[in-house]
Structure formats: structure tokens, C-alpha cells
């Protein structure tokens, strides 16, 4: 009860602050999915989670960094109970086991996931090259729908180093699931996944144009 | 008649008009089916009910509630403006100040009836302070363009819109404490002008007024709607300190400023690459799509009234 109330509050607050309107450029996915997006602020996870439909949200868990979300108090409550986040280790020295093991476990249970394949936040509007984790997940789960998403204003709302979020309206654009190509090389796959997010970003409206 | 009774009469009239509009929309939908135009018409009418309800609640609750509601209108309008503006990380500080300091401060100055500072705070201290806040980020790329757009957004969405509720503190001799009627008068004439231009345009529109800037505006809509709104404004002279002739002139000024505001802000919107400012008000687009005429009409009406009627 408390968890459901907290979830509704969290979605409401996120929508109030940054809009988080969903713009589906393709049919919304109904199967087990992995939503992957550009990563530019601490609000990204909440924005995608809030943009999903209630049915999708119920089965979707974000993959998040342990060093940010595993702080005692509110963050642990939110990440553990409300978002049911899969916390993974980013620091190399702490990675005793394979950091993706909990991700694989969740996928085997049938959960859908939210993942930021860049691994870290960038201040730019376009994502940096993707790291290899997305490819390993795709290889291990050939039936998984890989749905690209683009967050359009959050790099301006809460750029790295700032603490006060600006209340700009963020639209979360979801694209069509990536087609699977048998025998595709790792680099080619990652480039194609990256391109699918860049395509959703569209052209920039230059400040001076 | 006292202020309360006048407010009641005018709101009664608005409710009657909206009921008529809803009935027409319902009949049209039954006769011709839910076409695109009719669906949009009905969405607009429904949104009008909601907007009138909010405005009515403001007047009922008093000046503080009115100021709070207009502060939120400014906040949402600025949000839409800045969302469409490609700002950079270096603009974060001036933007945070614009949203979280300038908006509340401007409305607090009205609440304090501090006219001297209300009238200059954003044009002087905001204008000069925003680039100063931006310069410390050390990003010179497109600096002038970026700062200008923030200044523009703040001037239009905060400064200009705030002149509408500032009518509440215009204590005109012989008209003390009746500022709410002036605010109602302004909002009615502006919005009826928009509605009538839309209606006349849909019924008789042949010649496009400015196809590139605002494709739905027509010459027939402008003239018919403008005259109708001026007529209605004139007929409302009894809620204002104006004579019927003065009320006609004031309404005409409000209508003309509203048209100019609609056109100029439509051009701004298109130069930012958008068709609607947002999606907040069903059928209308965003907050700025509904407030664009008010942005230009409110400051001019405020200052004309203040200049000619303060005694």
C-alpha cells in the first residue's frame, strides 16, 4: 500500500517537475523489453519510468548505479522498494563478480528493464558511444525487445554538476524495437543501437540559426 | 450595483455563452459526426469551461489567489518558452533564477503594491542580472543569442503577463478596490476577440492574413472578430471606470494589441521550430497559445488606464 502510494507520488512529482510525456514513434511494446536511452541526468530513470504506461511500469525495473542509489534513507527506499532497481557496481575494484549477473537474473524472471548503455552521464544532447553490456544482454536473450528511447531536455534540466532541476518539459521518445541480425559483430551492433537513439534525437535547433 | 453584483452578472453572462457554445458543439457533432474541426471545437469549449472555472475561483477567493494563479500561468508560460529554446549547460544558473526567483518576486511585488519596483525590476535588474549569471559559466558560444532568449522569455512570460493581475492594485480615484473588474474586463475582451476571430474565420474566412506566420488567421476573422469583441467591450462599460466611448477605444486598443501579440509570438514560436507552444490545454495547445494576446494587451491596457485615469 505504502509502496504503491509512493510510486504514484513519484510519478506525479516527476510529471509535475519535468513533464515526462511519452511519444511512441512505433507501437508500444507489449512483450518483455529492454528500454535503452541516452543518459544525461539523475532524473533520466524517473522520467522513463514515469513515461511508461502503468501496465509496462509494473513489470519494468531500472538498472542503476549502486554508488548513487544505495544511500541510506529515501534513496534506498525508492530504489529498493518502489522502483525495484537492479543496482550494479560501476567501480572496477568492487567488481568481484560479473556486474551484469543481477541483470541476467532479472531478465530470466521475465522482468523488463531500463538501461543506460553509456554507463555514465554526459552533458551533451547526443549520447556517447555505448559500452558492451547491451551487446552481452542482447546475445544472451535473443527474444528480448530492444526498445530505443531518447530523453530530449533533461541534459538542460539537470546538467552534470547542478543541483536544482529546471522545470522544462521533457518528452520521452520511444522508437521501434531494434531488428535482430544473426551473427552481427559487437561493434556493428553497438553502433546500430547508438544510431537508433541518435535518430530519435533528430536534428538540433541551433541557438544561432 | 456593487462590485460583487457586477462580477456575478458578468460571470452569469459567460456561463450562458459557454452553455450556448456547448449546445452548438453538441448539435454539430450529432448532425455532422465527430470530424477533426468539430472535435477540436468541442475540446476548446470544454477547456474554456475549465479556464472560466479557474478564473471564477480566483475572483471568489480574492487577490492573493488571483496572484498565485497568475504566477503559475507565468511559470507554465516560461516553461514552454524555455523548453523550445535550445539553451546550454552554461544557462542553468540564469534559468534557475528566472523560474524560482523572478516569477515569485514579480508577483510578490504586486502583492506588496510596490509599483515602483514592479515596473522596473525585470527590465532593469533582470535584464542586467541574467547575463551576469550566465557569464560565470565561461561559455561564450552563442552567448548573445542565449542570453537574449532568456531575457525574452522572462519579459513575455513573467513581466508582460504580470500586468494583467497588476490591475488589481491600480487604485483609481472613485474606483478603489474594484481592480478585479478591470482584470475581468481585460481578460474578457482579449479572449472574446480570440474566440470571435476563430468563429468568424471558420464561418467567413477567405483571405489568409499571414499564411507563413499564423496559417489559421484570416482577414475576415480579424475584422469580424475584432469588431465583435470591441462591441462587447463597449457594452461592458458599466463594469469599468470608463464612459461608453472610452470603453470602445480601450477595447479597440486591447483587440489590436492582442492581434499583434498573437502574430508576433506566433512568429517567435515558429522561429523556435514549433507549431504549438505545448500541449497543456486540450484543443488550444499550450499555455502560451492561450496567453499570447494577453502578453501584449495587458501592459498597454495597464499603462493607458493608469496614465489617463489615475487623476
TrEMBL record, chain A:
GO molecular function: 1-acylglycerol-3-phosphate O-acyltransferase activity
Pathway linked to the protein: Lipid metabolism
Keywords (A to Z) from UniProt: Acyltransferase, Transferase
GO biological process, one term: phosphatidic acid biosynthetic process
InterPro entries recorded: Plipid/glycerol_acylTrfase (IPR002123)
SUPFAM superfamilies named in the record: Glycerol-3-phosphate (1)-acyltransferase (SSF69593)
Ranges of residues in domain Phospholipid/glycerol acyltransferase: 33-154
Signal sequence bounds: none
Protein name: Acyltransferase-like protein
Record organism: Tahibacter aquaticus
From TrEMBL, chain B:
Domain of life of the source: Bacteria
Keyword line: Membrane, Nucleotidyltransferase, Transferase, Transmembrane, Transmembrane helix
Record carries keyword Disulfide bond: no
Transmembrane region(s): 7-28, 48-73, 94-110, 116-138, 150-170, 182-200, 221-239, 245-265
Keyword Nucleotidyltransferase: yes
UniProt GO cellular component terms: plasma membrane
GO terms (BP aspect): peptidoglycan-based cell wall biogenesis
GO molecular function, one term: nucleotidyltransferase activity
Protein's name in the database: Phosphatidate cytidylyltransferase
